[in-house]
Design brief:
Layout: H1 6-17, H2 21-37, H3 39-57, H4 60-66, H5 68-89, H6 96-101, H7 107-113, H8 118-131, H9 138-168, H10 174-194
Helix pairs in contact: 1-8, 1-9, 2-3, 2-9, 3-7, 3-8, 3-9, 5-10
Length: 197
């Protein structure tokens, strides 16, 4: 039954598991807050991305991306948030009280961020153009497409959150924490710059 959707499943897996703004943010969230407190963030990404998939599958996404002003706004919002995140990442405090004072990204914020995430737009438009099921009514095809993609996406992004939560144990030493922070800042700044390339 899943064989007709195997190309979509593979595309969803590769595009969801590879590094990008969402996965970098989830790794950071796993480090700062642990896996359990990051669950709303993960669900927000998956549901928000599912809505974006549906929007793009109807053709609206291509119209939005065809407008230069919309492209600029998406890039500016996405890169601006990533630079803000890089600033926050420059020093991580694993003190229990400091961790409780901070709050992880919530469900709504994570869902809305998908509409500012250029990688998500590219994934949604490309996937809709290439992998939307054929030979069935459009609403059913879009629903199946979104459900399959989201079912693959959530476990993939969970891996990044889990990796962050696992790394937290090994970042108690100041030297390793500084090295890790520098790497995460560099990756986040790169993601912010890559949006404009």
């Amino acid at each position: 039954m899943l064989i007709p959707y195997l190309p979509l499943i593979m595309f969803a897996f590769v595009s969801s598991i590879t590094p990008g703004p969402n996965n970098i943010m989830l790794t950071s969230s796993g480090i700062w807050f642990g896996f359990r407190r990051s669950i709303p963030h993960m669900l927000g990404i998956t549901i928000g991305f599912g809505v974006l998939l549906a929007v793009c599958a109807t053709g609206i996404g291509a119209l939005v991306m065809a407008a230069p002003a919309a492209q600029f706004a998406l890039r500016a919002a996405g890169s601006g948030y990533l630079l803000y995140l890089a600033w926050q990442l420059r020093s991580m405090d694993f003190d229990r009280q400091a961790g409780q004072a901070r709050q992880p990204m919530g469900f709504v914020a994570a869902a809305v961020f998908q509409f500012c995430n250029p990688k998500a737009w590219v994934m949604a438009i490309t996937g809709g153009a290439a992998f939307l099921p054929q030979g069935m009514p459009a609403p059913l095809a879009i629903a199946i497409y979104c459900l399959v993609f989201c079912a693959v996406n959530l476990p993939c992004i969970s891996v990044w959150t889990g990796a962050g939560a696992l790394l937290r144990r090994y970042l108690s030493q100041p030297l390793w924490r500084k090295v890790f922070c520098a790497v995460m800042v560099a990756l986040t700044v790169y993601s912010a710059v890559a949006i404009w390339l």
